[in-house]
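Dear colleague,

As promised, here are the two records you asked about, laid out in our usual form so they can be pasted straight into your sheet.

NAME FIELD: protein one
SEQUENCE, THEN STRUCTURE:
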Amino acid sequence: MQPEASSEMKEMRYVGIDVGKLRCRAAVMDQEGSITDEFSFNNNHQGIEHLASGLTMDDKIVVESTGSVWTNLYDILDEKHIPVVLANPLKTKAIASARIKSDKIDARILAHLLRTNLIPESYVPAKELREIRALIRHRASIVKIRTMAKNKIHALLDKHGLTYGFSDLFGKRGVEWLNALELSSLDRLMLNNHLQHIDSLNQQIERVDEEIRIKASQDEDVKLLLSMTGIDVYSALLIRSEIGSIDRFPDYKRLVSWSGLAPSLHQSGSMEYHGAITKQGSRTLRWIMVEAARVAATHDERMKQFYERVNRRRGDQKAIIAVANKMLKIIWFMLTRREPYQSRNLQLYKRKLNSLVN
């Protein structure tokens, strides 16, 4: 794409970009739906800068939110105030297959859908929130690797029929016991390697937790979220990063629906049937709310009573989902009204806040 020679000839163009890890394909469409240019460019800073040099603020660009390869392209264009739409790939494919009769979402189809205002947009968090999300997911990946290492030690103990009476095998006493076991030279080597690996991962998690604490201490929404029983610093920052600005949800129903915690609705004539939760939207937010609900159902008297009422009628799993749903509704009001949780445990809340500064 060549840079614009004159501002007098400008008219809106629609640019669809099929983003790849190394190369991107762009299609430029005019207002009548004709392709005026097609080209490829490298998905790096130099290639994106060359693309941007041929664009203006009168153009509209659409890219798919596939993995994380779109972020650099989006940020560079956004900094230059060139409007970019981030397309939801699953919904875009459904629309394209219905209207264009093609299973492949390429640059031309994206440009066409943008021109006809048929692009289902994905929410793009601010760059700072995306970095926090990356930090939180990095911690989750380290914890997952640590769990795998611990499972290998459990498998080694099972192999030898060894049992223990510690509540935490990987606490101080448990590790001392593991180090004292008499094993073959090969099994001892593997056990030592696993223990060293876990120790290294623990140190990595501690460093990440410190960074999470720093980020959390700078965020007023996190401080409000900490007032709710069942939410700690990690989960508060996770919830904050997933929700983004609460203003994008006009009411609590939109937030609950976006999390996938809303019950599905089936209509037949004048009858309505509510089924299982939709599980559509933010899987991460849904997961952390369920984890928080399990804690709140035990330690928060208000949530405990609600859990027990639902549990008697519908069982444990549905009761926990109901608690998670209720907590998320309350969170919407907390963040919208800028008020802490009304039924908060004051002593616990103070300890949580103090943990941010100590």
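NAME FIELD: protein two
SEQUENCE, THEN STRUCTURE:
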Amino acid sequence: IHNFTGITDILEPEDLAELLNDYFYHMFKIIDKYSGTLAQMTGDGLYVFFGAPDFTNDSDHAERCARMAIEMQLTMRELQKTWYESGIETPFKIRCGINTGVATVGSYGTKKRMEYVAMGMQVNIASRLESSADPGSIYLSHSTWGLIKDKITCEKVGKIEVKGLSRPISAYKIIVD
């Protein structure tokens, strides 16, 4: 959620909790619809991956992930209207980052707390794309764009610097109508 910390200063705690629960309810339904794996909820963020535990192929995963992100953005537009009309002056806006590549996937942690997650540079690239994206937008890496460009309308954003990489990467933006 873009500017989540700033929004927490504006909203009453009860209103914030109600909005977050409404947001999570809708987003979880969408994740399930596209068979994504919800690895973590990091405060206000959702970390979802495809390809594990069930792998089909990269094109299928990239397309389902992109369609999931589009539906999330469209749902957010509806939620923003509803929340605004109910008196919330600063409704949530989300950003999404999508990358395709090989990651290390497994259960990590201790006997008391274990999480099923994907890790590695490919995951970091998706995270950096998300943080670079404009509120309400979906940014893709070149590898993802190559897999979905004939099915989903995208435009080139250009090169972006990615923390942890020595070279900038090409970024694309999904056109959400």
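A couple of things worth noting about protein two: Strands lie at 37-42, 45-49, 96-98, 104-109, 114-119, 138-141, 154-160, 169-174. The chain has five helices and eight strands.

Best,
R.
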